[in-house]
Input
Amino acid sequence: QVQLVESGGGLVQAGGSLRLSCAASGRILSAIDMGWFRQTPGKEREFVAAVSWSGGRTSYSDSVNGRFTISRGYAKITMYLQMNSLKPEDTAIYYCAADRRNSGSLSTTAGEYDYWGQGTQVTVSS
Output
């Protein structure tokens, strides 16, 4: 079992920046890819970004590409999302997720991730 804990959410004005962190713990028996998703009330969970175990491969949704940067920590059990040029439409609960398939491709589908954090609220005011 893998536990994921997010931190770093908060309230920021449009144009500002936030950095989210995700710490993984538990029985990490094999390399796992990780990702960030976000969700607003009444909508499905939306893919934001993903990063491979090594940190060498990344993927972004079109809505955040060029503004957000995903990365892994040195020990590989932490993950970060640097969010710049934030917009009000980025307001959501952001979830950290882990994919244990080790398939060689980064998934953008929430259903293919096996473990989830509890989420952290990001609010961007206009």
